[in-house]
């Protein structure tokens, strides 16, 4: 059976999250010291070599991203933590921040040193005011203790806009604007917050950093799948016996997670589909459950690892009903800046709703497929590009659920 | 209750701080009064239209009066399959209002929301952002009693 491996959650349940002494006694802030004894380029090379890729969903090489900002000479750079965890079925960043906030601060401070920034922001979703409180306490303790040196961290609250998980929309929101994504390029590592080079990384990405420094890039690189090394924190929801969070090496298979940690499907039923990575993730049929979780293996089956949400649906679930609900989500969350997404999410939901209630028109299934394909290419940001995925993957794997609606 | 002008003045020097100011006003009032949007526009030196555009972009922020205790039912997919519709029906029955409305005594308003990040215990509601998990129709009266 698959084993859990806690890197990101190494201190979970072992320290008092609101007592910085506990964190320091557990070896905390030694990695920041170690980082500062290295040159900035040595540090960035170490992170690159570890193979760590962004845990927010896009999977970009973290050290590579840092190197883009490092190379720019300017008066100010920023480090931003994306804690706008709005992906339905996901609560991993909340678990991390509630239980080990100092690890996040240390990871951000290491990034600050690497790129030459003295100012960090944590953009935490507005639905987590209780997490914001804990983060502010942790920051106050770190400042009082002087462990962050000249690196300053401030928390800013999101406002319940899913699109702000997209890094340029998040930056707009910190600046006090509507959270609408920017045209890219330029990318944030070059021109980001207030026009300055800005590294935006996910909570889970930053929390990996102190451990990589402590144990070395080679050690990290040897864990899990070689193209996406390390672990991933997953949150299990839906029709599963154990609705829990787990942290597993990235070469663990979907089935091992479902059976080994989820305890199988609830009520002794069979699994029909698992949607991984959040509400924009592909629906995965039973026949593909032996796929590894890592980024590239998931891409190869037309799915995503995404945020690590693990939404299990049993054999009695109607895929059309679930996808109808999901498309309502995207219609609501589309920011309206680009037409393919604003109109596309609206029309896709309209068609899904019709289908779900037995009023489908001839040609709706073809139109869904055609519109979805256009959106994946034409939408401005990841929201619109990924929104059709639940429709397209269920049309592919669960066509019977759709045709049943015509009877 | 603190005046919204006082609250805004605490944030006006914070770069990009209008959203923080809105959050602070909403913590005090449970919503953002229309006039506070105009006051924020002046303090942050932007057109009223822009300040209004920011306030209404974010679904967690609400411009205009609503009930003191804000009940939000998550309707994202994991809560949907866990029976969110039954919980909404129970809330509507118990409060005597529909989604989007406020009770006549101004104590409660009922809204739908997307995921609130408590998916280990679906279906989930929040009251003034405090989460309640594994909610059933039967549990509703006892939960609401805490706020009556």
What's the CATH architecture name of the largest domain in chain A? 3-Layer(aba) Sandwich
CATH architecture of the largest domain in chain B: 3-Layer(aba) Sandwich
Span between N and C termini of chain A?
Answer: 43 Å
CATH class of the largest domain in chain A: Alpha Beta
Q: Count up the helices of chain B.
A: 7
Describe the main β-sheet of chain A briefly: 5 strands, mixed
How much helix is in the residues of chain A? 40-55%
Compressed to H and E, one letter per element, the order of chain B equals HHHHEHHEEEH
Shape of chain B: elongated
What would you note in describing this structure?
Chain A is an alpha/beta fold and 407 residues long. Helix content of chain A is 44%, strand content 14%. The mean pLDDT of chain A is 97. Chain A is built from 18 helices and eleven strands. In chain A, helix 6 (101-115) crosses helix 9. Chain A folds into three domains: 20-222, Rossmann fold (3-Layer(aba) Sandwich); 225-314, Roll (Ubiquitin-like (UB roll)), CATH 3.10.20; 319-406, Up-down Bundle (de novo design (two linked rop proteins)). In chain A, the strands form three sheets. Chain A has a five-stranded mixed sheet. In chain A, strands 3-2-1-4 form a four-stranded parallel sheet, sandwiched between helices. Chain A has a two-stranded antiparallel ribbon with strand order 5-6. With 148 residues, chain B is an alpha+beta fold. Chain B folds into two domains: 4-57; 69-145, Glutaredoxin (3-Layer(aba) Sandwich). Chain B has helices at 4-11, 18-29, 34-43, 48-57, 77-81, 84-95, 140-145, and strands at 69-74, 108-113, 125-127, 130-132. In chain B, strands 2-1-3-4 form a four-stranded mixed sheet, with helices on one face. In chain B, helix 1 runs parallel beside helix 3 and helix 3 packs across helix 4. The radius of gyration of chain B is 17 Å and the shape is elongated. The mean pLDDT of chain B is 96. The chains are: A alpha/beta (407), B alpha+beta (148).
């Amino acid at each position: 059976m698959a084993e859990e491996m806690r890197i990101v959650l190494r201190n979970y349940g072992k320290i008092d999250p609101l007592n910085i002494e506990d964190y320091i006694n557990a070896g905390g802030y030694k990695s920041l010291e170690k980082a500062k004894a290295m040159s900035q380029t040595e540090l960035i090379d170490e992170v690159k070599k570890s193979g760590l890729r962004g845990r927010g969903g896009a999977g970009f090489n973290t050290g590579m991203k840092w190197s883009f900002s490092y190379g720019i000479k300017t008066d100010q750079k920023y480090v931003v933590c994306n804690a706008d965890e709005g992906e339905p079925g996901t609560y991993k960043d909340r678990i991390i921040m509630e239980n080990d906030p100092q690890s996040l601060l240390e990871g951000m401070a290491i990034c600050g040193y690497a790129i030459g920034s003295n100012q960090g922001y944590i953009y935490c979703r507005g639905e987590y005011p209780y997490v914001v409180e804990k983060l502010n306490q942790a920051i106050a303790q770190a400042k009082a203790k002087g462990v962050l040196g000249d690196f300053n961290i401030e928390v800013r609250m999101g406002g319940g806009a899913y699109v702000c998980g997209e890094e340029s929309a998040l930056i707009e929101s910190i600046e006090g604007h509507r959270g609408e994504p920017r045209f890219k390029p330029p990318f944030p590592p070059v021109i980001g917050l207030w026009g300055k080079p800005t590294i935006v990384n996910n909570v889970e990405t930053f929390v990996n950093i102190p451990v990589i420094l402590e144990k070395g890039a080679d050690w990290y690189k040897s864990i899990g799948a070689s193209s996406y090394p390390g672990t991933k924190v997953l949150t299990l929801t839906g029709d599963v016996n154990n609705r829990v969070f787990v942290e597993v090496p990235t070469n663990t298979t979907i089935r091992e997670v479902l059976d080994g940690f989820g305890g199988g499907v609830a009520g002794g039923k069979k699994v029909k589909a698992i949607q991984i990575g959040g509400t924009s993730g592909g629906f995965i049929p039973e026949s593909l459950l032996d796929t590894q979780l890592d980024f590239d293996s998931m891409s190869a089956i037309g799915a995503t690892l995404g945020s690590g949400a693990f939404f299990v649906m049993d054999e009695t679930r109607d895929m059309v009903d679930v996808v109808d609900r999901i498309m309502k989500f995207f219609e609501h969350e589309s920011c309206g800046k680009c037409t393919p997404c604003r109109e596309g999410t609206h029309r896709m939901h309209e068609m899904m709703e019709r289908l779900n209630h037995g009023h489908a028109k001839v040609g709706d299934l073809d139109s869904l497929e055609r519109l979805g394909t256009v959106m994946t290419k034409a939408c401005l940001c990841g929201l619109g590009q990924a929104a059709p995925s639940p429709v397209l993957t269920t049309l592919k794997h669960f066509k019977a659920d759709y045709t049943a609606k015509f009877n | 209750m603190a005046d919204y002008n006082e609250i805004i003045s605490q944030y006006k020097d914070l770069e990009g701080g209008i959203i923080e100011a809105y959050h602070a006003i909403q913590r005090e009032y449970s919503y953002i009064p229309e006039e506070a949007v105009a006051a924020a526009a002046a303090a942050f030196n932007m057109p009223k239209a822009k300040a209004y555009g920011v306030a209404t972009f974010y679904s967690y922020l609400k411009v205009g009066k609503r009930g003191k205790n804000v009940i939000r039912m998550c309707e994202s997919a994991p809560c949907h399959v866990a029976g969110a519709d039954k919980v909404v029906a129970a809330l509507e029955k118990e409060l005597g209002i529909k989604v989007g409305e406020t009770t006549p005594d101004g104590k409660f308003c009922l809204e739908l929301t997307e995921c609130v990040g408590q998916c280990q215990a679906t279906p989930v509601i929040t009251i003034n952002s405090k989460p309640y998990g594994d909610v059933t129709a039967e549990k509703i009266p006892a939960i609401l009693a805490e706020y009556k």
